């Protein structure tokens, strides 16, 4: 059973003051997220990521379409007890402490009273807020608020977690901790759906990603599949501080970093290049085919979308 | 369901208390003790009348201001700050949120009124040095003031469910002022003719009739309050607040939280 099935969800807003005109925020979206995977929802700012998440959370109502979450209609109140949600740039009740905030959310999520305190303490520990559990949230930094947001999303041990830009506002250590946390959630058998425009995060974490641009889905698939197209080139890395003339003769594009040289050459020159290194008695470190990066795939999809949009205008 | 409403109400109350809403009690205490001392010195035989009039009017005005200024932000502030997203993504229904907020604000006002009532009785004791049986009528006036607060809270929530805090404040305060003259409006409707009569009558019965709740002057003169009036005002306030809350729920249930 898929964790999420989005069946043609669409959202059009009416904008303008006097003469209202329709503005499509999300074209009919069809998407399936499997149980237990980390799924990245990628797109530039304003692409429709947050609109999709708000539709799934029931915060905005779709113009058409529907969705199923954990096998039930997404509007079913029972579903909400099994999901967690971190909104983008979360903000909480200023005058509550982190402990009180989580206790409040535990109450609303139906966590049994006997378990509440233990769950709250454990979650605060998990997101690194244990030491500041008694501090009011108005004194929290942006990064600490983000951690509190993540804590409230996982507090009730949901089966499915939605994160909207979870790395936003975090320093490199915080980002690493959130990545680790998401991997832990996956190991615990939970499904993680997160939106981001930071491709390195998606590449490091996701089993599959979808790319959305201007409210339209532009591509979806496993990271390995999306980045598997070989470009007919190989990268050769060897120990040296200079490039031998025989390598230059093969047309290699070389970069020297410290005592390591990296060269990109055509795939059909690979044997000749290895022979050249052998003749020069240089130590080969690696030889790998050059694959498309997620970033290159992403940019290509966006550029293609822009080009086709330009043609239709 | 009831538990979730109670949790939302208790959180609303806690937020209001920590937001120093009850600090208004200090201003109230200063005003009332100052007035009690002053009237004790300058008025003869009417000290009690002045203290009851001033005290109950202050209780009403302080409460109305709190009800409007907190009530108008109860929904819009939560949308603006996105705190609502983390609440409604849980098994919380939208109507539970609205009703919880209403009870939280109403609870804040009841506690606030309780402390102010202590202040009124303390000031009364200061000027008259004793309590008489008729002073118990002040409790009826305070009860009517609380009923007024319930209506104002529900109206503030209603406006907050679809408009900005500024417009909500203007709407709620305007309705309070018009409602305070509802009896005059009904009298004017009786004198009008044709379509004007229909329109004014409609408006007179649509706006909350706050003038029926204002018994401060008669209480100050130790006039008894009819049991029928107490029953009528109770039913009227509960019905009006329920209608306004239903309106708020209806609007909020269909609102896109952009």
CATH architecture verdict of the largest domain in chain A: 3-Layer(aba) Sandwich
What structural category do the secondary elements of chain B indicate? mainly alpha
CATH superfamily of the largest domain in chain A: P-loop containing nucleotide triphosphate hydrolases
Number of helix segments of chain A?
Answer: 11
What kind of assembly state do the chains in view correspond to? heterodimer
Q: Please report the distance between the alpha carbons of the first and last residues of chain B.
A: 26 Å
Low-confidence stretches of chain B: none
Shape of chain B: globular
Distance between the termini of chain A: 41 Å
Largest sheet of chain A: 6 strands, mixed
- CATH fold-level name of the largest domain in chain A: Rossmann fold
Average per-residue pLDDT of chain A, rounded, comes to 88
Number of strands of chain A: 14
Classification by helices and strands of chain A: alpha/beta
Strand content of chain B: under 5%
In CATH, what is the class of the largest domain in chain A?
Alpha Beta
What's a quick, concise take on this entry?
The complex is a heterodimer of chains A (313) and B (258). Chain A is an alpha/beta fold and 313 residues long.
Descriptive overview:
The complex is a heterodimer of chains A (about 325) and B (about 260). Chain A is an alpha/beta fold and about 325 residues long. Chain A has two domains: about 5-225, P-loop containing nucleotide triphosphate hydrolases (Rossmann fold, 3-Layer(aba) Sandwich); about 230-290, Alpha-Beta Plaits, CATH 3.30.70. Helices cover about 35% and strands about 30% of the residues of chain A. Chain A has helices at about 50-55, 75-80, 100-110, 115-125, 140-155, 170-185, 200-205, 225, 245-250, 270-280, 295-310, and strands at about 5-15, 20-35, 40, 65-70, 70-75, 85, 160-165, 190-195, 210-215, 215-220, 230-240, 255, 260-265, 285-290. In chain A, the strands form three sheets. In chain A, strands 6-7-8-3-9-10 form a six-stranded mixed sheet, sandwiched between helices. A four-stranded antiparallel sheet of chain A has the order 2-1-4-5, covered by helices on one side. A four-stranded antiparallel sheet of chain A has the order 12-13-11-14, with helices on one face. In chain A, strand 1 (about 5-15) and strand 2 (about 20-35) form a beta hairpin. In chain A, helix 3 (about 100-110) packs across helix 4 (about 115-125). Chain A starts with a strand and ends with a helix. The model of chain A has no long low-confidence stretch (mean pLDDT about 90). Chain B has about 260 residues and is an all-alpha fold. Chain B has one domain (about 1-255). Helix content of chain B is about 80%, strand content about 0%. Chain B has twelve helices and no strands. Chain B has helices spanning about 1-20, 25-40, 45-70, 75-80, 85-90, 95-130, 135-160, 165-180, 180-190, 195-205, 215-220, 225-255. Chain B is globular, with a radius of gyration of 20 Å. The chains are: A alpha/beta (about 325), B mainly alpha (about 260). The interface of A and B includes residues 58, 78, 89, 96 and 152 of A.
